[in-house]
Amino acid sequence: MKSLSYKSLRMIAMGGLALAAGVAEAHTGHGTSDVLEGLAHPFGMDHLLAMVAVGIWSVCALPATKAWWGPTTFMLSLIVSAALGAIGVTVPFLEHMISLSVALFGVMLIFSRQQMTASFGLGTIALAASLHGLAHGAEAPASGFIAYAAGFLATTAALHFGGVLAGLSIRRHLASQGGWAITALGSACGAAGLYLFSQV
């Protein structure tokens, strides 16, 4: 299958961000009753940016054969913490910490080409994912958690995949300027996280 061009990927990403900007942040206070709500939940701007950033970071910071470790770590931590959130486990200032996790992922992108142990990066991803999972779990319906979880896991996987594609596209089409592109994306992600923090 012919790979998508950089221009096509950029258009898809811009469309996704525009769509997400119009979706209310999906945390506590909104009804969730089925798989469709689960599918929609990760499209809050904070969740979306974090998941795409994890995909890009994994391509840039990990060996090619281990690029899926980042998304896999995120999703495993996400589902465990979502189950905890569904039974009422939470932490103080959860929304604030989720916003700061977006900023943290921006910093990780900026330094993705520097020497960083995989265990440190993956541990940071797991910790951040646990915060996002608690927020997802807090929205779980009284019944039907499995369907709801299947929905948000499917969207999470798609967003990670989009981040991986973006990272691969930057590596392939902007080889000589890839460092600048990743730094710019990381800076934008970090700034977005700080903005979200200021709005909580």
Short description:
The protein is mostly helical and 200 residues long.
Topology:
Elements: H1 6-21, H2 35-40, H3 45-61, H4 69-86, H5 94-110, H6 118-138, H7 145-173, H8 178-199
Helix pairs in contact: 1-7, 3-4, 3-5, 3-7, 3-8, 4-6, 4-7, 5-6, 5-8
Structural write-up:
The N terminus is likely disordered. Helices cover 73% and strands 0% of the residues. By secondary structure, the chain is an all-alpha fold. The protein has one domain.
Instruction: Assess the beta-strand content as a share of residues.
Output: under 5%
Helix content: over 70%
The tally of beta strands, per DSSP, is 0
Number of domains: 1
Give the overall pLDDT as a whole number: 83
The major pleated sheet works out as: none
Q: Which structural category do the helix and sheet elements fall into?
A: mainly alpha
Number of helices: 8
- Straight-line distance between termini: 43 Å
Approximate shape: globular
H-E string: HHHHHHHH
- Unreliable residue stretches: 1-6, 8-32
Radius of gyration: 16 Å
